[in-house]
Amino acid sequence: MQTKLDKAIIFATEKHEGQKRDLGEPYIIHPLAVMKLVARVTKDEDVLCASVLHDVIEDCKVTPKELSELFGERVASLVVELSENHTQVKDIKEPMALLIKMADRLHNLRGKTDMFFLS
């Protein structure tokens, strides 16, 4: 039986199909890496789901309603907060959304560092 997290990973993988990161790797590597970083701090399934889904509203045209119906209101609320405040960390109110945002930034920074050293 699939867990909610399994379903979120499959959903994110399908929605990010064909998208690439700056170095050419499949985009889904990023949300999975963010989820892995978040999992070091919490095992809360809703938070882990939101971490793997954190870019689907902005990048894949998924609606908050769709997320709520599939994964619950808490997951949808976390993803919406991350989407609405994608550049303003100071505006994030929910601590778990802040955790996801910091993991997102950390992974993006790692990617930029890799690009620097590989070029």
How do the strands and helices of this protein lay out in sequence?
Elements: H1 4-15, H2 29-39, H3 45-53, H4 56-60, H5 64-71, H6 73-84, H7 95-118
Helix pairs in contact: 1-3, 2-3, 2-7, 3-6, 5-6, 6-7
Task: Describe it.
The chain has 119 residues and is an all-alpha fold. It has one domain: Hypothetical protein af1432, CATH 1.10.3210. It has seven helices and no strands. Helix 2 crosses helix 7 and helix 6 packs across helix 7. The longest helix has 24 residues.
In short:
This protein has about 120 residues and is mainly α.
**The number of domains:** 1
H/E element order: HHHHHHH
Per the principal axes of the C-alpha atoms, what is the gross shape? globular
Distance between the termini: 44 Å
Cα-atom radius of gyration: 14 Å
Mean residue pLDDT: 89
Q: Which consecutive residue ranges, at least 5 long each, have pLDDT under 50?
A: 115-119
The CATH class is Mainly Alpha
How many DSSP H or I helices? 7
Assigned CATH architecture: Orthogonal Bundle
Number of strands: 0
Q: Main beta sheet: strand number and arrangement? A: none
The percentage helix is 55-70%
Structural class: mainly alpha
β-strand percent reads: under 5%
CATH topology: Hypothetical protein af1432
- According to CATH, the homologous superfamily is Hypothetical protein af1432
Key words describing this protein structure:
7 helices, Hypothetical protein af1432, 119 residues, mainly alpha, 0% strand
